Structure of cyclic-guanylate-specific phosphodiesterase:
Amino acid sequence: MDDPNDQSLTGSIKRDVRSIVQHNVVTCPPDFSLQQATREMFDNHCSSVVIVEDGRPIGIWTEADALKINYDHLNQATTLIHELMSTPVSTIALDASLDEATCLFRRNGLRHLVVIDEAEKLSGIITQSDVVIHQDVAYFLRMSEVSTILPQQQPTQVDQLSSLPDAISAMRASQTDCILVTVNEQPVGMLTERDVVRLIALDQLHRPLYEVMSTPLISVSENMSLLSARALMERRHIRHLCVTCADDCVCGVVSFADVLANIEQAYVNRLRDALNNRTADLAQSENSLNMAKALIDASMDGIMVTDENGIILSVNPAFTILTGYSEREALGQRPSLLSSGKQGPDFYQNLWAALKKNGSWQGEIWNRRKNGEVYPEWLTITVVHDARNKRRLYAAIFSDITERKKSEAIIENLAYYDPLTKLPNRQLLFDRLDVAMATAHRMKQGLALLFIDLDLFKRINDTLGHSVGDEVLCEVADRLRRCIREGDTVSRIGGDEMIILMTEMEHTDSIHRVVQRIFRALEESINVAGHELHLTASLGCSIYPEDGTDRDTLLKHADTAMYRAKSNGRNSFQLYSADMNRTSMQRLSLESRLHTALSNNELFLQYQPKLELGSNRIVGMEALLRWNDREQGVIPPDQFIPVAEELGLIGKIGAWALEEACRQCKEWHDAGYADLHMSVNVSPQQFTRRDLADDVEQALGNSGLPPAKLDLEITESCAIQNIDDVLEPLNRLRQQGITVSMDDFGTGYSSLSMLSQLPLDQLKVDRSFISGIPERSQDQELVSTMVLMAHNLGLNVVAEGIETDKQHQYLQQIGCDQGQGFLFNRPLPPEDISKLLIH
Ligand SMILES: Nc1nc2c(ncn2[C@@H]2O[C@@H]3COP(=O)(O)O[C@H]4[C@@H](O)[C@H](n5cnc6c(=O)[nH]c(N)nc65)O[C@@H]4COP(=O)(O)O[C@H]3[C@H]2O)c(=O)[nH]1
């Protein structure tokens, strides 16, 4: 229930008797007659008189007592009050709580309590009504109706002609404080205990009832709220109301006491609940206190409480573990006991300012243990108030963060340094570059970014393994460190790419000097795991502010210059120039057009015949890809296939080339040239990013070309780099009858053991060896050795790029099986090949 009184009731528990006591008590000495005493009550409109001796209450006589007397044998003028009073009198102290008073009223069935001071002298009186009325009882009264307090028994009635003593006896017999007086059994008036007191006081007990009864009768409906009923009684200075039912008949009498009793019941219930709650709250808070203490004791964090003056009042066990000071050593000291001297006065000023402003402070601080060791801790200080004394206290909670700081340092190292070479990483380079650019701008100086890429480093990794590659990188990093000035940064930004940031540059001469140092440093061979390796590097450089005023532009331009150096033949250096930008813009545009080349049908195949050198008979064709670009016209594969590989487009393009070559070959088969073989170039990504075997099977299935007529050309580097990815699909395809050729043989580093591992059918000797024939005897010997070796391995040999008769003759002489080259045919469109086949 939503009860607005909970608050006041809980509040009342805390109030004391002093707050409601009535000090104007009607008193009389014990030798007062009953009449004198009642006269005092009557004159003062009081319901009781306290009999006092030497200022101390010795008894009390109340309106209720008036009914206990037999007036037939009593002389009110001579009967002394101390003979009739209730004694000993129930008293309560001024500072007793109202709940104590309520308990006394209920336990002893009292309606009055005499209030005494510390000297036990009379101080005042409280009635049960006072306690109840002092609560905000409107709520209860509004909620209840008069009918709820109607006594069970019908009101006692006496005829108006009855004598007054008979009427009082009837009242006493029915144990009520009021009776109805009737005429012809109709209620017309009322006699109450207050009337009796009045009659005693005025010596009118002999008068007829109808003269002294209270009239008129004031009636209310049984549905009236108790709040209205109480208000009516207070307004009319009456203590009883007649109650009428639906048929307007009198059905009872209710008294002020009845109203109070009802409130009292609700009040007492509420009071009991409030007390129960308070007990539960107390138990809970005691519980919480115990728990808090246990937590503080068990806490891994050190806890220290100081008073307002900074004197340590308490510490927990973790404090001792962390600082080395026992509780006894710490109490009474100041926190400066732990001071390391590492923080200056400013630090403490800020700390106190924050504490004042926010009531708390949090941060890192260096403290000293008892053994002198200085350590970092994370400290939280909070202002708290001592509940009992309302003192301001400071609670400090701290933890040792030595380990955390160590981990942070490791993480920072990982975040800013390359774990392999210990060089600054990309992030740190960027940070330093930003700072360097700002400084250069302020000081009107230049700076340079030197992009270094090791030539053919990938080959070292692929052929000799990553651990050798790693050692090479560490050695290169060391050598580069020695080439730069203090204040410059050499960083590794990934793989074999390193960048040197040179600051305070005034002239490009200094760049050239550093570049020369780098070339010299790399000239010397590197010995790793028994291998003597010769390294070269391609270097590109961009200069601030000429080549860019922001980080990304400078990096991009250094990278572009490095690529230019690489394409210039490696082991060279290139300063960035705006021209290069143009080239890279062109490449960008090419990239975007290449994305749609396939869907726009801009790709097509040309075919170059392969001849049997013994008979000069055409035995096969090599499919060669072309791109008819709408902007640049026909673009050769050397220019766009590496781009397609970089963009990840070669998988789809390669699958299309396979499909188209098989379809075309089948067309020629159907035209009567069923012996013709078709060779198709395959890119490494067709093994790694796609399932080559699936693509091949699909192309064969769609075209109907027999598998034995398809030859796949893979390059040496493709085989070396992806030996694991390559073996399984090639074996699967070879089982179906497809043949495999190794293209560009002699340009890579493939070993004999690798050759024997691969499922090969033929080797294609690279054009670069053929072109040296017959002038270069070394090439001649190399080619004849290759043919011999291939035959020993059971492989067929194809010579590429035969341009002259002499080459043709020499190859025939050494027993080379097949050849292709401009001497016979250039790559041709399929229609031309068809014509060629007919002739
Ligand atoms: N100077 C000279 N060159 C000759 C002679 N005979 C043939 N050639 C050229 O040598 C290349 C032979 O192809 P490749 O070594 O497989 O080298 C191919 C191959 O690696 C790649 N390629 C071509 N088509 C495809 C394809 O469909 N897929 C893949 N992945 N690569 C392809 O592009 C490379 C270049 O192809 P092309 O420009 O068509 O160049 C062809 C051909 O035109 C000659 O006597 N003298």
